[in-house]
């Protein structure tokens, strides 16, 4: 018998995405087996990207309302984030190109995948694919802002890299994927600080 055995799976909700309750048996380090129950929220996998401009030392970020942050103490509910979205059955690279154009208005050609990560593995099944890409004003094809049919209302922000790092340190940027990507650009020496 393997280390994990699913005993029961129950669908609790499929209103927006799916929430399932799993009962499973797991083999512990001491050799004993224990039965546990957990809920898993499945919203599909996603991708995130940070656009950066080396010449002007700027990055493209977005600002939008996030209900979960609002109900958990974010006074106005708005978060500053790197562009991101669900894969919607596309491969990660095609999905992030689509999301970048929809949200920011920039048409990028070659996003670079830098890593992938489970963002909240204790309760959410999503794996997030992280990308970076250089941008220039010549790549701007429209104003961005998201897809109206999806009721997206996204503000596009172009800010200096140093300012973005400072916003992260003051708590103005509190989104994990954005912090990770800003730190990546900093640690890899792709963008510089004075």
Bin the helical content: 10-25%
- Strand count, sense and closure of the main sheet? 7 strands, mixed
Along the chain, the helix and strand elements come as EEEEEHEEHEEEHH
Shape: globular
The rounded distance between the terminal residues' Cα atoms is 57 Å
Count of individual helical segments: 4
Mean pLDDT level:
93
| Structural class determined from secondary elements | alpha+beta
Kindly provide the radius of gyration, computed on alpha-carbon positions and rounded to a whole number of angstroms. Answer: 19 Å
Indicate the low-confidence ranges by residue numbers.
Answer: none
Number of strands: 10
Architecture overview:
The protein is of the alpha+beta class. It is built from four helices and ten strands. The protein has helices at residues 67-71, 92-104, 161-170, 176-187, and strands spanning 4-13, 18-27, 33-42, 46-53, 58-65, 78-81, 83-86, 112-118, 127-134, 155-160. Strands 4, 5, 6, 7, 8, 9 and 10 form a seven-stranded mixed beta sheet that branches. Strand 2 and strand 3 form a beta hairpin. The longest helix has 13 residues, at 92-104. It is globular and about 60 Å long. It starts with a strand and ends in a 7-residue tail after the last helix. The model has no long low-confidence stretch (mean pLDDT 93).
């Amino acid at each position: 018998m393997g280390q994990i055995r699913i005993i029961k799976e129950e669908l609790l909700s499929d209103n927006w995405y799916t929430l399932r309750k799993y009962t499973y048996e797991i083999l512990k380090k001491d050799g004993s087996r224990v039965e546990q129950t957990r809920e898993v929220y499945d919203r599909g996998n996603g991708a995130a990207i940070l656009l950066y401009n080396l010449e002007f030392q700027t990055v493209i970020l977005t600002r939008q309302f996030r209900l979960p942050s609002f109900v958990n103490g974010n006074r106005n509910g708005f978060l500053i984030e790197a562009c991101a979205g669900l894969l919607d059955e596309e491969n990660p690279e095609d999905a992030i190109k689509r999301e970048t154009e929809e949200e920011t208005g920039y048409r990028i050609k070659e996003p670079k995948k830098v890593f992938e990560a489970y963002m909240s593995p204790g309760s959410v099944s999503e794996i997030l694919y992280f990308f970076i890409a250089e941008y220039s004003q010549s790549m701007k094809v429209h104003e961005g802002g998201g897809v109206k049919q999806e009721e997206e209302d996204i503000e596009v922000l172009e800010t200096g890299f140093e300012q973005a790092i400072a916003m992260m340190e003051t708590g103005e940027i509190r989104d994990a994927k954005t912090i990770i990507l800003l730190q990546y650009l900093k640690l890899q020496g792709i963008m510089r600080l004075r």
